[in-house]
Amino acid sequence: MKEARKKHWRPDDTFHNIIDGEFKGVRRVNDALKKLGVKLGDKIVTSRDKDMRELVNVLRRDTMPDGFEQWQLPIVLGGGNRPVMSFITVGNANAEVPQHRHRDDCLFRIVISGSLHFRDLELFPGDWMYVPTGQPYAFRAGKLGVVVMHVYNGGGLYPETSK
After folding, report:
1. Which of 12, 74, 82, 132 is the one with CA 20 to 30 A from 104?
2. Does the pLDDT of residue 162 top 80, yes or no?
3. CATH of the domain at 33
4. What whole-number distance in Å separates Cα of residue 28 and Cα of residue 120?
5. Could you count the other beta carbons within 10 Å of the beta carbon of residue 2?
6. pTM
7. Residue 109 forms part of a structural domain
8. How many domains is the chain built from?
9. Is 19 helix (H, G, I), strand (E, B) or coil?
10. Which residues are CB-contacts of 48 (< 8 A; sequence separation ≥ 6)?
11. Nearest one of 1, 144, 151 to 66, comparing CA atoms
12. Interatomic CA distance for residues 156 and 90, integer angstroms
């Protein structure tokens, strides 16, 4: 079963789908804030503030391959036609994300703890990777697992400039 799930897993990129004029991921954050009665407003907030742990748990995603957990963070940067949404992903030791691509999103991933194997590289805390829209990739958590933060921004940041 695990092998079958690994082979057939695909990323859930639906958070950039538009529903009634609003991005699904933005709506998801707004619904979670409303459900818990949390107002972010014009104040500085931290992950240690009252209600933040519960808020992040409400924003947990259940679409990851075996050995990984993921949470959408309750902060949406930018807005307009392409909001930037942030996530924390925790991978168990040696857990693998099979080759996949993001159909409509580029992403920027930063290793926070542990390590991440990409191709012949091992990325450690502070290392990062940028994945352009549509580029296939896979990775594996290191022997002690991995925690990464990543942000998605659809459409790519660097359009091809070669002529």
Report:
1. 74
2. no
3. 2.60.120.10
4. 36
5. 9
6. 0.85
7. yes
8. 1
9. strand
10. none
11. 1
12. 25
Model confidence pLDDT, tens digit, residues 17-51: 888 888 888 899 999 999 999 988 888 989 998 88
- Return the pLDDT at 42: 82
Q: Residue 58 corresponds to which tokens in the numbers above?
A: 């409400």
Question: Is position 41 within any domain?
Answer: yes
Q: Report how far residue 76's alpha carbon sits from residue 56's, in angstroms, rounded to the nearest whole number.
A: 13
- Segments in 17-144 forming alpha helices (H): 24-36, 52-58
Q: Would residue 105 count as lying in a domain?
A: yes
Q: What letter would DSSP give residue 162?
A: -
Q: Tell me the pLDDT tens digit for each residue of 103-161.
A: 878 889 999 999 999 999 999 999 999 999 889 999 999 999 999 999 987 655 444 43
The beta-strand segments (E) located in the chain are: 18-19, 22-23, 60-61, 68-77, 84-91, 96-100, 105-118, 121-123, 128-131, 137-154
Q: Is residue 163 part of a domain?
A: no
Quote the tokens at residue 104.
Answer: 């409509």
The residue type of 121 is L
